[in-house]
Amino acid sequence: MEERLKRFDLQTGARWLITESVFSADGDWVDIDALLALAKRLGLALFVDEAHATGLFGLNGMGLTAGKSIPGISMGTFGKGLGSFGAYVCCSNTMRDYLINFCPGLIYSTALPPPVLGAIDAALDLVPEMDLKRQELQDKAERLRVSLKSMGFDTGLSTTHIIPIIVGSAGSALSLSSYLEKSGFYVPAIRPPTVPNGSARLRLSLTAVHTNHQIENFLSTLRNWHEEKH
Q: pTM here?
């Protein structure tokens, strides 16, 4: 990021660094402390999308920015890890007032229904107490990565519950996704332009409720596919 910033004139205009905290296609995560230091040194605002970290990482499972002073915006979703829907923005009072008055997505949307707000409230109570479940999920993800690599699959830089199986061409990704779906596993194919050319993949999104038996069945299905192809 620091090398890329050298291409721009940072003396004029709005200056924002925009990033995910856990990257949705690769399953790796940003060095948030290094990014905060960079933003502070260059006087930049920071926008961090915590969609895939909320509930799983950071202080009390509240994202990598939790407990840190962010010069800008930290946002996330009540879907995914928190099991509901809607989203949140953490920011200064000034930024909050600005968004309430100028953000069309907020102004022209309907307020969340009371049952949804209740589910969100319950999730916020539960998540800080779920350290054991978070660790269980990461242990399962690591075992799955090790097994996939031993079978010759490329899992990229993944270090989280999101595990790509990088197969190269869009056709290969679609073919493998279809094979798995026929065997009872829904694993979507992610293709360009969402990912760079030549890096089409299947994206595994592991959860704490996936059982070891399910994971072994999935690996067995992949072995069968591999044997049929070779």
A: 0.89
